[in-house]
Design goal:
Blueprint lengths: L7 E8 L9 H17 L3 E8 L2 E8 L5 H19 L13 E5 L4 H9 L1 H7 L2 H11 L20
Antiparallel strand pairs: 1-3, 1-4, 2-3
Helix pairs in contact: 1-2
Length: about 160
């Protein structure tokens, strides 16, 4: 083949360090717009972004010119600096080190977008931990429970 053609869809999920509920409603849309700019400036297409005070879901049309770990690191680093620069949180804000990344087919786009749009509704019925464990199990991702989450009790250096 003379050219390379791809159509890849990835949902990334990550949490606030210590699973603290620091993302506030009054500034989350501005944060989401900023993250959308990061995603698009790196050559990807934002399909949907949403979350809860303690975690975020980002669903993109992924361009494989950049690795997912590099993209996630860029999003976390740049958005963390943005939150600090804007003084959104009176508390020390950082993202948790790990993340989940899950791939989808073209026929699943609408369902994933709707799922992410309705985060508040989903979390009335189940916790982020339950949601994330369900995703890992559906995608048959092997994991060790002790490496999934950092809780406030586990964090010593604030």
């Amino acid at each position: 083949m003379a050219n390379t053609y791809t159509k890849l869809y990835v949902q990334m999920v990550f949490a606030v360090k210590g699973r603290q509920s620091l993302i506030q409603k009054k500034w989350k849309e501005e944060l989401y717009q900023y993250i959308t700019g990061i995603v698009q400036n790196n050559g990807h297409k934002m399909l949907r972004i949403n979350g809860m005070p303690d975690h975020i879901h980002i669903f993109i049309g992924y361009q494989p010119k950049q690795t997912i770990p590099n993209l996630v690191e860029t999003i976390k680093t740049d958005s963390n600096h943005f939150i600090k620069r804007k003084k959104f949180s009176p508390f020390k804000f950082n993202w948790q080190a790990g993340y989940g990344a899950f791939s989808y087919g073209h026929s699943q786009i609408d369902a994933v977008v709707k799922y992410i749009m309705n985060q508040e509704e989903h979390h009335r019925k189940r916790t982020f931990r339950e949601e994330y464990l369900d995703m890992l199990q559906k995608f048959e991702v092997e994991f060790k429970d002790e490496y999934l989450f950092e809780y406030i009790d586990d964090v010593r250096s604030w």
